Amino acid sequence: TCSADAEVIVSRGDQRSHFQNGNRRSCGLTKYPLKNPPVLHTHRQGDAESPPDCKRRDDETRLPAWGGAEPPGAALPRRNSLTEEEDGSQEFATRSRFLYYLFSLGTELGNELFYILFFPFCIWNVDAWLGRRLIIIWVWVMYLGQCTKDVIRWPRPASPPVVKLEVFYNSEYSMPSTHAMSGTAIPLALLLLSYGRWQYPFMFGLILAFCWCSLVCCSRIYMGMHSILDVIAGFLYAILILAVFHPLVDLIDNFNLTYKYAPLIIISLHLALGIFSFTLDTWSTSRGDTAQILGCGAGVACGSHLNHLLGLQLDPAPHSLPLSLSSLSVTVFGKAILRLLIGVIVLLLTRVAMKRATIPLACQIFRVPHDDVRRARQRMEVELPYRYITYGMVGFSLMFVVPCLFHFIGLS
């Protein structure tokens, strides 16, 4: 496994150490072509594995390999505030800004920021029927992927030699890549569910799914977070899960909408699945991610059930299918952006309010010291209810509260 075309600088306070490596690989394809490359690959001070030529210079504040200046594009990877790992102190400088930003975009297609924009846009502006089914598949794909990680327990690629351009999920295990799983399942499910319901060329949907999947999968290797085997396994695992759940997604959605006790069953089932996932291994960020995915799925299902019960946000009648893409006008585009902006603000405010309410309440109920919030959030009795309830309310607001708000202000 190789990471990106990046140089590494590791900082410890004001002290730095470095050594040159003329055989640094770029993007896993070729060796660095220069005779004396300005590559800085360093070990932390006191590292027993530091090579003999890695001499520490305590008075060094500039890096001589770049003529006494910082390398161009030097940056720090995005860190997770819940982890104590010092991998976040690793600086890097990229040679290709285009590749860095391209694959940063690719990796964001599997992060929370993308989900909180994509799913609401699909439900509020495109097709709620499609959005509900995408979320059902996404929840099961991510849940099974996260649990499989904690069962297999393969570590992330070692750094060095890999240059890690992201350390946000570094505390999680590596096999399979859940980014690759979501980056495979979502575009393929989107194609399978929308083709025939919406009028568009099949080749367009296939190319979009291929580009989406390829970008996400390649980005995880570029970022240094996964090996090729992790990504291939994630891709194949997502295909397997999609093959199982795609024929059942209509049945699951109809159950969520129509069965009288569906909300109670869904909340209990997702909570039980969350408790089970928390017993698989010690704490990592994957446990919290699993709880919030299950909570979001439960909230969306409950909101959908209430919508159906009250006769709100009804799906198009079968005789109106297939749906055609309406001509994009300034008014249509403006309303779509306004709905997205207002709705996402409501979702973010809901998340903030529930987070501030649930963490102290859980600490008080289970008698967990909350002087150090970060450590308190790593306790199962705090993290599970906090994540589950918070994102359950976010999912419920997505499906019920925000559409009601749109109806009230005339944006539905």
TrEMBL record:
CDD domains in alphabetical order: PAP2_SPPase1
Disordered: annotated span: 30-88
Any one of the GO BP annotations: sphingosine metabolic process
Domain Phosphatidic acid phosphatase type 2/haloperoxidase: 132-246
SMART domains: acidPPc
Amino acid composition bias (Low complexity), ranges on this chain: 64-77
Its membrane topology: Multi-pass membrane protein
Basic and acidic residues: compositionally biased ranges: 44-62
One of the record's GO molecular function terms: sphingosine-1-phosphate phosphatase activity
Catalysed reaction, written as an equation: sphinganine 1-phosphate + H2O = sphinganine + phosphate; sphing-4-enine 1-phosphate + H2O = sphing-4-enine + phosphate
Subcellular location: Endoplasmic reticulum membrane
Keywords of this entry: Endoplasmic reticulum, Hydrolase, Lipid metabolism, Membrane, Transmembrane, Transmembrane helix
Any Pfam family the entry gives: PAP2
Cellular component aspect of the GO annotation: endoplasmic reticulum membrane
Regions that span the bilayer: 98-118, 202-222, 229-249, 261-280, 292-310, 330-349, 388-409
Protein family according to the UniProt entry: Belongs to the type 2 lipid phosphate phosphatase family.
Official protein name in the record: Sphingosine-1-phosphate phosphatase 1
Organism this protein belongs to: Zosterops lateralis melanops
Lineage: Eukaryota, Metazoa, Chordata, Craniata, Vertebrata
